[in-house]
Amino acid sequence: MTAPAPDTRPPTPTGDRAPAEAELHAPPINPLVYDFVLAVTKLPIVLRGQYVHTLGREHIPSPGHKLVVAGAHVSSLDPFIIARTMPGHHVQFMTKKELFGPVTGAIIRAGGSFPVDREGNDLAAIRTALRVLKDDGTLGLFPEGTRGGGQMQGGVGLIALRGRSPVLPVGLRRDGQRWLVRFGPLIEPSGGIKELTARIGEEITRLSGPL
After folding, report:
1. How much is the pTM?
2. Structural domain span for residue 54
3. pLDDT higher for 211 or 137?
């Protein structure tokens, strides 16, 4: 659920790529599994008497257009909360590889998400993310990396620029029994990696603040 740091090494020439890499496809999505997971992960919120309040839905583009969703990361429920507030979209999250156990990994993959190694420059994860965008999918990232990390990772800027995709910033905070999800205006992919990453971070921070 985190964007890896950008890789500054020169890209491998197309002619030297292995066949498996050249034929890489975006991860498939099983809609039944996707909807089932969202339903199950809603239970902890309901059983605790909590609720989700959403602002800024007018900023969410219609499905069928490439989109990077960049959200604040405050809890393990974040990806499911954000995904439920975007009906019609199947958000494919870049997810830390430690979650891909024998059972959980199969469920995560069936929902369309894919692993990333947060310890280094995971080129395979970046390529998969770009393939999601190329197929006009919705890619979910948590640029801070870890929950409450505070430090923005440059991978979100790199992916948005290379994928030529707008970024939908999402603020997330919990006030008592209320979860507040707040979408901001789209951020167009322009400028350098550091500049774009900084703009995304500033907007996520603003959207996550008190109203």
Report:
1. 0.85
2. 46-208
3. 137
